[in-house]
Amino acid sequence: MLFNSFNFLIFFPLVLVIYYLLPYKSRWLFLLVSSYYFYAASEPYLIVLLLISTLVDYYCGLKIGEFENGKKKKAYLWISILVNVGILVTFKYLFFFIDSLNGLFEYFGIEVSSSEKIQSFRIDQVLLPVGISFYTFQTMSYTIEVYRGNMQPERHLGRFALFVAFFPQLVAGPIEKATRLLPQLKRNIAPDVQLIKRGMIIMAWGFFLKLVVADRLGLYVDAVYSDPDGNKGLPSILAASFFVFQIYFDFAAYTYIAIGAAKTMGISLINNFNRPLFSQNISQFWQRWHISLTQWIRDYLYRPLRRNGKINRMFSVILVFFIMGLWHGANWTFVVWGLINALFLIIEVATNPARKRIFDLLRINTNIRAFLGWGTSFTLMLVSLIFFRSPSLKDALTYIQNLFVLPNLHVNILNNYFELFLSFILIIGVQLVHFYKGNDKVYELIENKPKWMRWSMYVAYVAIIVLFGINRQESFIYFQF
Amino acid sequence: MKVFILKITLFCALLVLSYLAMVHKLSEGYVDMYYPKFTQSAKSLIIGLSRADEGIDPYTLENGLPEEYNGPVVNFASNQNYFGSVYLDAIKEKLVDTGNSEKRFFIVTVSPGSFTAPKGFGTKGIEAMDRKTAIGRANDFTSMPNYSYIMNCYGNGLYNAFIDSYSGGNLTTHTNGWNEVSLESPTFNITQEVIKDWKRKNLAYFERRLPKEEVKPYRLEWFGKTLEHLKSKGDVFLVRMPADKEVIEFENKNLPTFKTLMDSITHAYQIPYLDYSIGNKSFGTYDGSHLYSESAKEFSTILARDMLRHLKNQP
């Protein structure tokens, strides 16, 4: 079920009301059933994978908890990892791997069989189970934490299943650690009007970001990316820039709705963003963007893989970003996007002392340094995200070439300058709110304001959503991952 | 808590009522170029992709056919309407039930592109993709005003209800579903130079798309089911739309078996196949693929004449 659908508009208030009406003891069951319904609403049979992942990790968690040390403990951890990665590979990457293999054979002119070259390895791409990368990572974090002794295994199968399937964050995160979310799911939460209000304001901000801003930017971005040859020069620069904001607002919107929905139920989810587009360098960006994933990668991949020495550390960074890229999607474009970011990061760290010396020598003040850093980071993200958005590497390279075809001042492919103007205003407005309130305090826009101001804002909100919302019922970009 | 619930209910009611009011307001004026395809039930239909959407004028067709075929003829073709379960369901919804008592016709247009989908997509993937199109999202294909279409398929801000979003440019959207493209308009003239440029871009687009798409058995299977259904309702004509020589050559080069395939299908279903991709007569396009206003009218006249010849030869 999409957050931005009429179904959710009915589903969520119903769940919230029933949740608080029910006695504490049966809430977990109600939330679990609701979460499964939420997930199964689009493709019911895909819930089987969620159940497999849940049961395997529940069992492995218990078994890992039984042993203090030794091979058996490790064996159960590996079972958990292999099953989850196996599900991920089969349903997300198998077609990609085989397609790449076929491409390789084709490139080298190798005939797999005499009658049918290349086409011998053929499978159909299966429908990607929504949120598979998110819930497999979340549930793997549980077995790893139990293995590391940071938490006791959860004995209540229902509560554990709810931890895996909790609907606000099931399909696109934030990827919660069991140590954070599981204890919250056990608490008896009394209805708190202030908290519910706050949650709803956060959700409302998320809906605004999705319906009014991200999907509006998407109209322009989609139009340019679908016809790169027809939109060389300024339109391609504009669309590439818009995409940086589109993907951020789209993903942030989902996160706001998830955080807000959970908050109304008294559950606090990790904040996935911390003003990432104000970052002054690439490493800062990665500390502020999709925080739950970067923390997961840091804790369960980078730190265990990291070895001493510059070269080893460099390889760890490349490997981690390779995996990060692949996590986002089964396409070489995502892999290249990850590797480009690794390269940016390595260059940034390697040149840091030299850059500092040059700035000192030229007596460039901190504000200008910050501005230059921001400009450079934004431009680098813009370029790398062209790979993220393009359907193939060839398309991405063509797109990058098109950036430099100037002058082409005919930016308005939608034949509507008002929409373009509105997009700019919205980007500036949203970024100002994020600048002053951060990603975690948007509710302060309304909270504790005088009554007349609050109600004026509510009415303005209704008018903006109704008049300027783009009702494409497009799923969130991160759903595909 | 009670006060809070009351306030939140009031807020939601305000939101929903404002939204519905705006949907209604928009429905009173121009919605978008596909809206008229969803606002009436049809006796006869034109089916296919964008070439048929812009290339066949139902009004000209009706004029060229005997009176007994008159009735709402709707151009139900659009750039997203590939053969599949979603399209057939939409066609079924669209057709008014005449109980086989009246004469009706169905023009099913084809090109190699009608049977393709992204490489690697299985049945579920193709169906999921088709469900995201307008015909997949809409629940209602025949109402005027069609609120369901606006709520599910309209992709712009509802503020357009207050402005004249119908630009009156090169595109004229007719109530029978035909999208007419004129070479001249007060704002923009499609000159020969523009046509040449658009054709080049179109061919480049086809080249780019080629490695990513393939002909799917799923599409062919549902194409057969569509023909079968339509045959039970009236006279079916399979039509390959005309296009510029280079575009047709490109298609034939990349799917050389297309003609044989169509021949075998028409033979199997016993329906006439009118192939306008061959022959001496050429029709002007504005981008190599799509007919502009005058050539669409001319083509529709010739199509009606050829259909009539087939109808007269029927036993």
From TrEMBL, chain A:
Cellular component GO terms held in the UniProt record: plasma membrane
UniProt entry keywords in alphabetical sequence: Acyltransferase, Cell membrane, Membrane, Transferase, Transmembrane, Transmembrane helix
Localization of this protein: Cell membrane
Highest taxon above the source species: Bacteria
Transmembrane segments: 6-24, 36-56, 76-98, 156-175, 195-214, 234-259, 311-328, 334-351, 371-388, 417-435, 455-471
GO biological process: alginic acid biosynthetic process
Membrane topology according to the record: Multi-pass membrane protein
Location (main, coarse): membrane
Leader sequence residues: none
Sample GO molecular function, one term: acyltransferase activity
Family from the record: Belongs to the membrane-bound acyltransferase family.
Protein name: MBOAT family protein
Protein source organism: Flagellimonas aequoris
Lineage: Bacteria, Pseudomonadati, Bacteroidota, Flavobacteriia, Flavobacteriales
UniProtKB/TrEMBL annotation, chain B:
Highest taxon above the source species: Bacteria
Protein name: Sialate O-acetylesterase domain-containing protein
